[in-house]
Each structure stands twice: as C-alpha cells, then as structure tokens.
Design a protein that fits this description.
Layout (H helix, E strand, L loop, with lengths): L3 E6 L9 E3 L7 E3 L8 E7 H10 L4 E4 L7 E11 L3 H7 L5 E10 L5 H5 L15 E6 L2 E2 H10 L6 E2 L4 H18 L4 H7 L18
Helix pairs in contact: 1-4
Length: 211
C-alpha cells in the first residue's frame, strides 16, 4: 500500500474507513471537534512505513482546539486499524501489515480500559471496527512521540500516556519554546505593529476619535 496522509473524510463521524485529504503544506496539525473537515488526521500504509513517516516528521506536533462539546477532552486518541487479514499478520508480522492510523480528539469514554480490553480476534462481527492499537496522549505531542508510544503499546490493550510525566514535560517545554520563538520580534517590527501612543486629554478625546 502506498503511504497516504491527511485529514480523514467521508466516515460520517466514525474514526475508520473514509479517505485522506492531503493538505497542501503539512505544518503542525490542529484538530477541531467543531469542524468535521479537520476533526481527525490519518496515515495509511504499511505499519513499518507509517512509524517511519511519524519519525521523519518529528518536528510536527498535533494539538486540539477548544470545543464547546462536553464529551471531548483535552487529550488525543491514536488508533491503528488493521487493514490486513489475521493470517497475513501472523505470517508477515505486525510491521508488514497494511494499517490505517487515526489521530482524533479523545472522548471521555476513550479512557475506559475495560471497554476496549475485549479481544476482537475471536471472530466476532465487530472485529473490523476495533482498533488493533489504542494510545492516549496529551495534546501537543510531536509525531515522533506518537511513534514511540505505539512501539510500547500492546494489541487490544489500552496504553494511557496522558499521565506520563516525562512526556508531559517534553510537551510543555516544546510549547514554551515555541511561544518564546514567536515573540522574538525585532524593535523595528514592533514599531510597525504598535498602535499610536495614547495622549491623555482632559478636555476632549484624542484627535483620532474626533470626526
């Protein structure tokens, strides 16, 4: 399978299936629960290639925008759906199977480990609709952080990394560094963007506000 990536579309709100709409330029990924067009991001391809792509784009981060919908949290859910048969997986290994990786804003029930623990490889009809891997990560993680957590994850066992102190420290440090970089305007630039200085006047408003 040729590797594809982009925002997931055509799923009617479900976190699997559909197709990828590739952005013209891949920058930091912002997900919004209030905008179906950018509510989920996906990567399709061989599992080993998907992990390699995440590591290659290590300087890209994924974060969620604020939402008014109560069932969403501030965390992200990363799911890997197996698009190959169980026989292919057993013969070739996990790295050689075709998968669909989906990154979405976590729902409150995604933290329920017992609900996810039931093994869908028992031949049940819901097998195709259960992710092979599910990882919870804090908003603001880098794609390489996601790759590392997926390497630690076990099939059909929820891995909750939202309380990982080391990962949280990395996310906070990265966010702080970027804020400092964005505020690094020169004095000349600041003169151009600042509004004219306000001069106090007792008798009348400043000239700019007079008609």
């Amino acid at each position: 399978m040729v590797l594809q990536y982009g925002f997931l579309q055509g799923t009617f709100g479900l976190p699997y299936g559909g197709y990828c709409v590739r952005p013209q330029r891949l920058s930091n990924i912002m997900l919004s629960a209030d905008n179906p067009g950018i509510s989920m991001f996906c990567v399709l391809g061989r599992y080993s290639d998907v992990l390699a792509w995440l590591d290659e784009k290590s300087n890209r981060t994924v974060a969620s925008l604020c939402t008014t919908q109560g069932t969403f949290t501030h965390d992200l859910t990363v799911e890997v759906y197996n698009k190959s048969s169980t026989l292919v997986r057993l013969m070739r290994g996990k790295g050689a199977i075709d998968v669909q990786l989906v990154i979405r804003i976590a729902r409150t029930w995604d933290h329920d480990a017992m609900d996810y623990k039931s093994n869908p490889e028992d031949g049940s009809a819901c097998r195709s609709f259960r992710p092979m891997l599910r990882v919870l990560v804090p908003s603001g993680v880098a794609l390489s952080d996601i790759s590392a957590e997926l390497e630690r994850a076990e099939p059909y066992t929820l891995l909750d990394a939202t309380g990982d102190k080391s990962l949280l420290d990395t996310v906070l440090t990265r966010a702080s560094t970027r804020r400092d970089d964005c505020s690094g305007f020169s004095d000349e630039t600041q003169e151009e963007v600042h509004l004219p200085g306000y001069k106090e006047s007792i008798e009348q408003p400043p000239p700019r506000y007079m008609r």
